[in-house]
Design goal:
alpha/beta, ornithine cyclodeaminase, domain 1, Rossmann fold, 2 domains, eight-stranded parallel beta sheet, seven-stranded mixed beta sheet, 11 helices, about 35% helix, about 25% strand, globular
Length: about 300
């Protein structure tokens, strides 16, 4: 059995092309090749813990992942994310590797999924990228969009000017031209590709600001309580894409819109089906699209398996 530290995992990640791996994992999931039980969840006073696990049929491994988010940790000088992944042999049940990634693999696979959503659903011409939030995912989502869209003009919303200034300083070296705003409504008014990354439990973006042609990748709402988008946005959207329809019934933006009776389930398609061409994606730059990413265990299986094999 191998035990890999975060430093070893970071080195292994450098040589991996993760986007096609995550695409294939989504496509396999939507084709019925995956076994993914319901998410295990602990909601604590100061944070939350997600337990996700599953496998792809005819694959070598199954994976169990524990990942946490403690959003006040910045005040303690600690990262908000933590966790580990366990890689087992499907044939024998043997524990092959413990990946002590401290939540890094979850952060990366989430950002790659955001890039997948942008690749398949964003309009061909993106004039400005909007980022809602200034935390880890706000950084990684924009970084992983680099090879997917040519646009480098960015508008970021944050809860305070200090957070916005830090984000701008961090991301400008990647070649982005970044401006900040304290008004969340500016994001939908000015941006055609939007990524939301916060743990908000109240809508930050509202349908009144929505423009034709906008694509939104919603990342932050991964529990039943969280919501970043007004349900009216999903009602108005031409295309509503779930990473997992069964999971999105229970959590995330689609869950909130279904609860509000703003949409019906027959409006939904899965991201894996769009990737594989089994479902229709965007056909016009005037359409409005939303991808709801609640995080599916096949993403963890894909990244954990790839990192384990890259470790040698």
């Amino acid at each position: 059995m191998r035990v890999a530290t975060r430093e070893e995992i970071e080195r292994a990640l450098e040589g991996l092309d993760l986007l096609p791996m995550i695409e294939q994992a989504f496509a396999g999931y939507s084709a019925g090749r995956a076994v993914v039980p319901p998410v295990g969840e602990l909601l604590l006073e100061k944070g939350e813990v997600h337990i996700k696990y599953g496998y792809l049929r005819d694959d070598r491994y199954y994976v169990i992942k524990v990942a946490s988010g403690f959003y006040d940790n910045a005040e303690l000088g600690l990262p908000s994310s933590n966790g580990l992944m366990l890689v087992f042999e499907q044939r024998t049940g043997e524990l092959a590797c413990v990946l002590l990634d401290e939540g890094r693999l979850t952060d990366v696979r989430t950002a790659v999924a955001g890039a997948v959503g942008g690749k398949h659903l964003a309009p061909k011409r993106v004039e400005r990228i909007g980022i809602v939030g200034t935390g880890i995912q706000a950084h990684l989502q924009l970084e992983h969009l680099l090879p997917v869209v040519s646009c480098r003009d960015v508008l970021v919303w944050g809860r305070g000017q200090a957070q916005i200034d830090r984000y701008m300083a961090d991301m400008s070296p990647f070649g982005f031209r970044i401006e900040g705003t304290l008004r969340a409504e500016d994001i939908l008014s000015a941006c055609s590709l939007v990524v939301t990354t916060t743990p908000s439990q109240q809508p930050l973006l509202h349908v009144s600001s929505l423009q034709p042609g906008t694509h939104i990748t919603a990342v932050g709402a991964d529990t039943p309580e969280k919501q970043e988008l007004d349900a009216g946005i999903l009602a108005r959207a031409d295309i509503v894409v779930a990473d997992s329809i069964s999971q999105c019934r229970e959590r995330g933006e689609i869950h909130q819109a279904l609860q509000a009776k703003a949409i019906c389930e027959d409006k939904l398609v899965e991201l894996g089906d769009v990737i594989a061409g089994r479902a229709q994606g965007r056909t016009s730059d005037e359409q409005i699209s939303v991808v709801d990413l609640t995080g599916v265990a096949v993403q963890d299986v894909a990244i954990a398996s790839a990192v384990f094999e890259a470790l040698g």
